[in-house]
Amino acid sequence: MTPMDHADNPPEQEEQVATPQSDEVVTNVEIDYEDRWKRSLADIENLKKRQEADRHTLLRFGQQSLIEDILPILDNFSRATKAVPADQAQNPWVVGMQYIQKQLLDVLLNNGVIEMTVLAGDTFDAAKHEAIGTTVNEEVPEDHVIEVVSTGYLLHDRVIRPAHVIVSTR
Q1: How far apart are CA 42 and CA 62, in angstroms?
Q2: What is the CATH number of the domain that holds 130?
Q3: Distance CA 94, CA 82 (A)
Q4: Residue at 111 is within a domain
Q5: φ and ψ at 9, to 5 degrees?
Q6: Burial of 166 by CB count in 10 Å (0-12 exposed, 13-18 middle, 19+ buried)?
C-alpha cells in the first residue's frame, strides 16, 4: 500500500479479524513476556543476595591487607622478647615491650585474628602450614611438623598466613 492508498482506506477496513492462530500467538507472546519478567525479578533478587554476601565478606575481610602488613611487626616483637636474657626479664623496658606486644595481639584478636596452634609432632597440612624446610628424622613420622619457625594466623575462619614449619622426611 502506498501512503495515498492508506489515506483512502478507513480504519475499520484495516482491522484484521482475529483467528484462533493469532490469539494463540498473542497468548504465547504474553507468556514469553511474563516468563522474561519473572526471570528478571529472580535475577534482581539473586543480584541483591550476591551484593549482600559481597558486602558481608568485605566487612569481614576488608582489613586483611592491613593485618598482613602488621604480622611481621608482631613476629619481630616475639623474636625480641624471646631473645631477652633471663637476668633482664624484669627490666622496665622489657616489660614495656611485652606490654606493647600484648596490646597489639589484643587489637588483632578484637578484629577477628587468631593465632593457629601448631605444635611439633602435628601432621603437616598444606592448607594451614607452609613447609620452609625438611629434615630427615627417624624419630618423627614422615610429613609431620618438627619445628614451628613462625606462627600462622586466621582472620575469622580464613588462613591469612600459614604457619612456617620444618617437616620430617625419611
Answers
A1: 29
A2: 2.30.22.10
A3: 10
A4: yes
A5: -90, 125
A6: middle
Contact status, residue 74 vs residue 153, Cβ threshold 8 Å: no
Note if the pTM is more than 0.70.
no
Burial class (CB in 10 A: 0-12, 13-18, 19+), 77: middle
Cα–Cα distance measured from residue 122 to residue 140, given in angstroms and rounded to the nearest whole number: 10
Q: Verify that 146 and 107 share a domain, yes or no.
A: yes
Cell triple for residue 42? 529472580
Q: What does the DSSP assignment read for the chain?
A: --HHHHHHS-HHHHPPPP-HHHHHHHHHHHHHHHHHHHHHHHHHHHHHHHHHHHHHHHHHHTTHHHHHHHHHHHHHHHHHHHTS-GGGTT-HHHHHHHHHHHHHHHHHHHTTEEE----TTPBP-TTTEEEEEEEE-SSS-TTBEEEEEE--EEETTEEEEPEEEEEEE-
Do 43 and 69 belong to one domain? no
For residue 148, being part of any structural domain is answered with: yes
pLDDT in tens, 64-110: 999 999 999 999 999 999 999 999 999 999 999 999 999 999 999 99
Does the residue 6 lie in any domain? no
Residue 127 lies in a domain: yes
